[in-house]
């Protein structure tokens, strides 16, 4: 360590301050007895000691070479290490100072107490620039030594020997409490950073006044836990906390005999503690007692007038912090309740799927957020699932979220395909009187086939948990967030078709689940999986997703893959930090579902291409036959397919899109579905064909040959579908 030499002021200590980047100036010393000043610069290692400070350490100015070891060698074994630990702890915890008693061996061999008190000065960036303070000779009077193993312990009667340090401890506790955001913060700060042990406190109890009762929310006693019988007590009962609440006045008790005589019922619980005094302070805010704090002391013989006054001030600081924290908690609960009223009260039951959802509001702040989830039952046993996030954290974001959720549900229920649902919702948000945008991921799920038709509008990528417990990230093509796309006539939200296998779970979530301060979102996903019990992941190619995706190589031990409720709970507990909301939706496809693909047909039929029309009819027939249908059923499928494609080409502009697949695989109700999509929004109309006419009978044939048929809107077009129930029970379905 580099040390500097400072001759100081032989006449005694003078005021000290440190200008930014400069040398220390004098610091006012108020402690009684022989005392001197010091200043230490951690960046340079320079230590300045004046003559008075050197005299406290029994070192003459001629001996002082600037070597700090010369001072440390005079301390008794262990005290130097204890002082270093205390200063390091004060710096790391953001404290403004420290105080400690040290044992010093003089030239004559006598042992004296030295009190060191320092202030920590930081620059604008929070870096420690100077530690300046005083050292005082506390004399050879027998003091209670600091307890072994407690680096910051102080003598019990600090208010008698060093009232300045006691005041500093109390002020530090009040300053820390001012930052509390919840009742739990108040409790933790009192226990951890309040410094009560440095004042000789061995037991602390905090109670809140609720409807004529005192609810103990925190109790810390050496060697004992909370007493269940005393968690709730009436204000009119014979307890010291009750008396402090009734009288609105602090209560000070000195002596074990006095305590036992006045409160025998409570004494039976604390008689084993080495307490000698107690203080019970009502917490008064706005002329109303909102709580009470009880302090139990060791080896305390009296309360000085100054100590009583400061304890009353200390209680006032606790009361203000506690009331502020209670108001913040109440506002936060109201915001969370408002958010929950805008989310689904229950989730639909869909055969072949297990669904779980969670919403966790931000644990800091009092604003409501714009995160949401929804699950919408669709025809044919399908389910639409959506998770989204509106920009901002305020009531306006919540209001926009509520409208968007309603719009998405309405468009999905109308039968629009996923791209059209999202595009229409985006146009709605664009035309809304708001400057907010939103992100979302939307999935149309068919549990029978495992089909996932997904749209991702500026949202985070979903995750899939495989049946073996490992994870992969899907690669769903993205588009602009809702409210930023404008053209209804041109598709702007691509639909990606994937397959959710038997026993697999789809996780859709908002960014609050994986975002942490200073952590990249990609790394946030890895941290989330690590918290769930999965090992570090490697990247593999996700078949069906396209791009590379991270995967965990070992299975997740818990929760079991099929337990979606436990999985959702674990995700909420493990994900993100407390600064953002979290909404998530888990969809699990039953493990006993069968999804071995059968022959499917997905093709585009252009205008004016008779060969393509013939190929479309033939493809539909082949799918029906591969699914196990008879010749009669295959003939019907071929005929109806030809009619639907021909109608689309004849009565609309542009090509037709044909999809033929099997639904309900592995169930007794297997059926073949034919879909033809075109660019006209006009619904098909059944006409009465004149005798001898060669057209006008298409829909009549569809109605006669298909078991069911209908139309669905598709943005600027439509989809005409029909289903055939002439397939045998065995067999399997497929996807395009």
From TrEMBL:
Limits of the GAF domain: 178-332
Listed Gene3D superfamilies: 3.30.450.40, Histidine kinase-like ATPase, C-terminal domain (3.30.565.10), PAS domain (3.30.450.20), PPM-type phosphatase domain (3.60.40.10)
Keyword ATP-binding set for record: yes
Compositional bias segments (type: Pro residues): 12-23
Ranges of residues in domain PPM-type phosphatase: 350-589
EC number: 3.1.3.16
A Pfam family recorded for this sequence: HATPase_c_2
Keyword vocabulary terms for this entry: ATP-binding, Hydrolase, Kinase, Magnesium, Manganese, Metal-binding, Nucleotide-binding, Phosphoprotein, Protein phosphatase, Transferase
SMART domains: GAF, PP2C_SIG
SUPFAM superfamilies: GAF domain-like, PP2C-like, PYP-like sensor domain (PAS domain)
Function in brief: Primarily acts as an independent SigF regulator that is sensitive to the osmosensory signal, mediating the cross talk of PknD with the SigF regulon. Possesses both phosphatase and kinase activities. The kinase domain functions as a classic anti-sigma factor-like kinase to phosphorylate the anti-anti-sigma factor domain at the canonical regulatory site, and the phosphatase domain antagonizes this activity.
Protein name per its UniProtKB record: protein-serine/threonine phosphatase
């Amino acid at each position: 360590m580099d040390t500097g030499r400072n001759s100081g002021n032989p006449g005694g200590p003078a005021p000290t301050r440190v200008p930014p980047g400069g040398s220390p100036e004098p610091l006012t010393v108020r402690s009684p007895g022989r005392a001197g000043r010091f200043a230490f610069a951690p960046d340079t290692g320079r230590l300045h000691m004046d003559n008075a400070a050197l005299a406290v350490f029994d070192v003459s100015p001629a001996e002082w070479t600037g070597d700090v070891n010369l001072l440390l060698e005079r301390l008794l074994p262990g005290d130097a290490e204890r002082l270093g630990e205390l200063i390091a702890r004060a710096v790391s915890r953001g404290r403004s100072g420290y105080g400690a008693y040290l044992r010093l061996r003089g030239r004559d061999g006598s042992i004296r107490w030295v009190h060191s008190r320092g202030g920590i000065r930081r620059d604008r960036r929070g870096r420690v620039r100077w530690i300046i303070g005083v050292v005082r000779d506390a004399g050879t009077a027998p003091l209670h030594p600091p307890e072994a193993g407690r680096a910051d312990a102080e003598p019990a009667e600090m208010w008698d020997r060093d009232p300045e340090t006691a005041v500093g401890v109390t002020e530090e506790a009040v300053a820390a409490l001012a930052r509390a955001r919840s009742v739990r913060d108040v409790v933790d700060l009192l226990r951890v950073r309040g410094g009560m042990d440095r004042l000789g406190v061995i037991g602390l109890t905090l109670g809140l006044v609720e409807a004529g009762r005192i609810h103990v929310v925190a109790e810390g006693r050496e060697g004992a836990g909370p007493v269940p019988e005393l968690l709730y007590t009436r204000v009119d009962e014979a307890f010291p906390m009750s008396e402090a609440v009734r009288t609105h006045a602090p209560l000070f008790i000195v002596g074990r005999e006095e305590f036992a005589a006045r409160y025998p019922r409570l004494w039976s619980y604390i008689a084993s503690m080495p307490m000698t005094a107690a203080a019970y302070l009502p917490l008064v805010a706005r002329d109303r007692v909102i709580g009470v704090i009880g302090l139990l002391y060791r080896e305390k013989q009296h309360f000085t007038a100054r100590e009583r006054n400061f304890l009353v001030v200390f209680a006032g600081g606790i009361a203000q912090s506690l009331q502020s924290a209670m108001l913040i908690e109440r506002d936060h609960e109201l915001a969370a309740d408002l958010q929950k009223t805008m989310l689904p009260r229950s989730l639909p039951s869909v055969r072949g799927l297990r669904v779980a959802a969670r919403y966790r509001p931000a644990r800091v702040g009092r604003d409501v957020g714009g995160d949401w989830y929804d699950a919408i039952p669709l025809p044919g046993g399908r389910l639409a699932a959506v998770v989204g996030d509106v920009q901002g954290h305020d009531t306006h974001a919540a209001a926009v979220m509520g409208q968007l959720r309603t719009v998405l549900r309405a468009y999905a229920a109308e039968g629009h395909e996923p791209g059209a649902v999202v595009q229409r919702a985006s146009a709605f948000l664009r035309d809304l009187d708001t400057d907010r945008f939103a992100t979302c991921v939307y999935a149309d799920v068919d549990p029978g086939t495992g089909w996932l038709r997904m749209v991702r509008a500026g949202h985070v990528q979903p995750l899939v948990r495989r049946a073996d417990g490992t994870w992969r990230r899907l690669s769903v093509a993205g588009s602009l967030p809702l409210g930023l796309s404008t053209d209804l006539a041109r598709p702007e939200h691509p639909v990606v078709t994937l397959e959710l296998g038997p026993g697999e779970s789809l996780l859709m979530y908002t960014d609050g689940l994986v975002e942490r301060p200073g952590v990249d979102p990609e790394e946030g996903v890895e941290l989330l999986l690590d918290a769930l019990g999965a090992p570090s992941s490697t990247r593999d190619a996700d078949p069906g997703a396209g791009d590379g995706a991270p995967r965990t190589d070992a299975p997740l031990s818990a929760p079991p893959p099929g337990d979606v409720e436990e999985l959702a709970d674990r995700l909420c507990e493990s994900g993100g930090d407390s600064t953002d909301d979290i909404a998530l939706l888990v969809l699990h496809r039953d493990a006993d579902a069968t999804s071995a693909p059968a022959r499917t047909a997905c093709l585009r039929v252009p205008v004016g291409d008779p060969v393509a029309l013939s190929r479309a009819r033939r493809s539909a027939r082949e799918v029906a036959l591969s699914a196990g249908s008879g010749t009669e059923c295959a003939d019907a499928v071929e005929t109806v397919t030809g009619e639907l494609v021909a109608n689309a080409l004849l009565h609309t502009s542009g090509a037709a899109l044909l999809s033929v697949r099997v639904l309900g695989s592995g169930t007794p109700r297997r059926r073949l579905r034919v879909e033809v999509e075109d660019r006209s929004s006009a619904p098909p109309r059944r006409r009465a064909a004149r005798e001898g006419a060669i057209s006008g009978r298409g829909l009549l044939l569809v109605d006669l040959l298909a078991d069911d048929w209908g139309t669905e809107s598709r943005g600027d077009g439509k989809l005409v579908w029909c289903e055939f129930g002439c397939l045998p029970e065995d067999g399997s379905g497929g996807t395009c």
